[in-house]
Amino acid sequence: MATQTQIEVVMPQMGVSVSEGTIIKWLKSEGQAVQADEPLLEISTDKVDTEVPCPADGVLDRIVKLEGETIAVGTTIALVATTSAALASPAEPEPEPEPEPESIAIGNGAPTSPEPVGAQPDNAAGRAFVSPVVARIAAEHSVDLERVAGSGNDGRVTKKDILAHIAEANETEASAPDVEGASETVAAAFQPASKVSSAPSGDRLEPMSQMRRSIAEHMRRSLDTAAHATTVFEVDMSRVVAIRTRLKPEFLERHGVRLTYLSFVSRAALEALRNWPWLNAEIRGDEIVTHSYINLCVAVAVDGGKGLVVPAIRNAEGLNLLGMARAIQDVGDRARSKRLAPEDVQGGTFTITNPGGHGSIVGTPIINQPQVAILDTEALVKRPVVVSDDKGVDAISVRPIMNLCLSFDHRLIDGAYAVQFMAEVRDSLESWGEERY
Amino acid sequence: MPEKTYLQAISDGLRQEMRRDERVFVLGEDVGVYGGAFKLTVGFLEEFGPWRVIDTPLSEIAIVGSATGTALMGLRPVAELQFADFISCAWDQVVTVAAKQHYRAGTSVPLVLRLPSGGGFSGGPFHSQSPESSFTHVPGLKVVCPATPHDAKGLLATAIEDPNPVLYFEHKHLYRRIKAEVPDERYTIPFGKARIHRAGGDVTVVTWGAMVYTAAEAAGELSAEGVSVEIVDLRTLQPWDKQAVLESVAKTSKLLILHEDTRTSGFGAEIAAQVVEDAFEHLDAPIRRIAAPDTPIPFSPVLEKAYIPQVEDVAVALRELAAY
After folding, report:
1. Residues 360-389 of A with CB under 8 A from B
2. Same domain, B164 and B201
3. Which of A200, A212, B114, B204 could make a disulfide contact with B80, Cβ separation 3.0–4.6 Å?
């Protein structure tokens, strides 16, 4: 058995397509004893939060990645010492003053010289070598090294010199608390700096939830990535309304499934995607990847509208109306009760969002990367519309109209392609047959 | 508490383990009738009989191979190689078989190799080496290098208890030269826990084995000159106590690494690299290494003295670091 003293904790692969995760919260601190399988930290990948268990008994030796950092899968995020060989080390190195290159001597040219590499005083500035520890202390205490008397080789300022200088300065200022700070202790030296934030009165300050940060990052990245364009179609939902009214009680009683308009729109969209495959695709570098399957993402509002998750229904192309309604209900329920697994929010190929419930009639949704299109179903509104009978006579009729909006990535999808897809969705919904499930 | 030599401490510890656990047995060249090349197992054959004190042919690979096999079958072999130098003959069994067995098959190999190592008495190039660094580079092995009689006994008990192959390097030059109090009762000392041999604040020396005493003598000289030296005795190299080293370096900001093994790729290089990685901003001077030169160990007493780091070499380096 190997006798490693340190075990690396890496960002886990939470499902095949996830490439990175974000650290929400460290549940353990450096130096703390930990046990195998004990939760070490909380991470967020895409929109699912989970805990990372400790790989072994030991001590959390070092936290390599801090809260809020997003890290590629497989990257070391912490070290667990399986023996007592734990050490908390500085999380972030302090910025150091630039060393004076000309003042760093390179020895006497003999590579085997036992002499330590020393400083040489004979440069114009007369400044000598600054060691790492002196550079750090000078930066932490804003000390101008020019003003410190050096007692080391060639007048170099040693650690003792600078500590004495700081202690003396503090004494003259009679600011006792800082004298302590000047003394080098292991504990102080290895503690990461804490973050302090404050808000002006009248404003409430709260940290972004991990979900919020994920959404923020994702939305921004999508707008930075895709060339967004949106097209809006009016759809006469008369037939769908009639069929839904008839099937709804039956679905509920026999299957316990709520039959929503979203199920109809989803079915229509999936059928149309077969003819317009580039809308079920992604751009990967210089290549277009077209999927033979459709993993349909459905946006679900959670946390009273303060959050959003977008679970995917796998192989949705194989679902009939009942299956679709059931699947939508299932992912919605699980999203709201936070029971989604990481794989539930991965691998989506096309997204439908449904903000119409509150009366919205037009939207310009942002594409769910790396997809290239998102379909938005708006409110069903009764409107007076001009209809023509089979003799070509126009009349005004009251019809249930729904606007469907499609945002597409104009890098891949041209307008003509997008609107032909939308026309097919519209025609499919307007001509929904009695026996079509 | 009785005073015991380093050798007596190991001998008593081994006897205690054999009395305590009948799975423990010894094997090696001349360990039985003769009582071992250094007379460490004198009286063992009489007490434990020929099934637990086994004289082997002169073949290190056979010794380590048999020990590995019996360890796999549930025994707790303590194999003695007459000189640590000859572990090279058993490299294949140690590195290919024993070290990897648990990884490959999940079976433990509770094997201890007792390896008399080190120079200082004109043993020449085949009987004086300190090959511990090589084995710290082999995942699956533990490497132990006690410096004191107390540690020698406690670490041997831990080594025998450990389910992994443990290379227990006992320094020959300490055998009868070093004497200290050792408890009669059984005790263990954990692996990976350094011992502060001498506390100080100006310069840190990290070392192990016989060099602990060389460092201590030099530190005594420096103390008279007003320089306070801290000596960290690692005790085990695999695992090794990074925390103790880093804490000492954080305190003194100056580090000298001292070992009897040769310089290039010696374990001192690993320590230096680790300190630079984890404690760069605590350093107030370049890290120094004192080690044997990259040559075989000379037989000539004069040359051997030039080869093995001496008190004066250490004192000079400490003075330079203190003044840096």
Report:
1. none
2. no
3. B114
Indicate if the pLDDT at residue A254 is higher than 90. Answer: yes
The whole-angstrom distance between B143's CA and the closest CA on chain A is 10
Tell me whether residues A87 and B320 touch, CB distance under 8 A: no
pLDDT tens digits, one per residue of B85-133: 999 999 999 999 999 999 999 999 999 999 999 999 899 999 999 999 9
User: Where, residue-wise, is CATH 3.30.559.10 in chain A?
Assistant: 210-430
pLDDT digits (tens, 9 = 90+) for A359-369: 899 999 999 99
Q: Which of B181, B203, B219 is the last residue of a domain?
A: B181
What is the C-alpha end-to-end distance of chain A, expressed in Å? 60
Q: How many helices (H) and strands (E) does chain B have?
A: 12, 14
Burial class (CB in 10 A: 0-12, 13-18, 19+), B154: buried
Kindly list the residues from chain A whose CB atom is less than 8 angstroms away from the CB atom of residue B140. Answer: 1-3
Instruction: Check if A303 contacts B (Cβ < 8 Å).
Output: no
Q: How far is A135 from chain B (nearest CA, A)?
A: 8
Could you give the percent of chain B with pLDDT greater than 90? Answer: 99
| pLDDT of res. A97 | 46
Residue B152 and residue B221 share a domain: no
Of A3, A94, A152, the CB nearest to B164: A3
- Same domain membership, residue B143 and residue B206: no
Which one of A37, A333, A414, A427 is the catalytic residue? Answer: A414
- Does A6-81 carry CATH code 2.60.120.1440? no
Rounded CA gap, B56 and B65, in Å? 12
Taking contacts as CB-CB distances below 8 angstroms, the residues of chain B near A93 are 280-281
What is the average pLDDT score of chain B? 97
Contacting A residues, span 96-155, partner chain B, CB-CB under 8 Å: 114-118, 131-136, 152-153
| Integer Cα distance of A364 and A358 in angstroms | 16
Residue B235, classified by CB atoms within 10 Å of its CB into exposed (0-12), middle (13-18) or buried (19+), is: buried
Q: Is there a catalytic annotation at residue A224?
A: no
Which residue range forms the structural domain that includes residue B204? 195-323
Q: Look at residue B188 and tell me if it is in a domain.
A: no
CATH number of residue B43's parent domain? 3.40.50.970
- Quick check: is B190 in a domain? no
Q: Is residue B189 part of a domain?
A: no
Cβ distance of A116 and B278 shorter than 8 Å: no
pLDDT mean over A374-391? 93
Which ipTM was obtained for this model? 0.79
Query: If you measure CA to CA, which chain A residue comes closest to B138?
Result: A2
Superfamily per CATH, domain A210-430: Chloramphenicol acetyltransferase-like domain (3.30.559.10)
- Contact at CB, B250 and A152, closer than 8 angstroms: no
Q: What is the total count of domains within chain B?
A: 2
Catalytic residues of B: 127
The DSSP 8-state label assigned to residue A385 in this structure reads E
Question: How many angstroms separate the CA atoms of B304 and B288, rounded?
Answer: 22
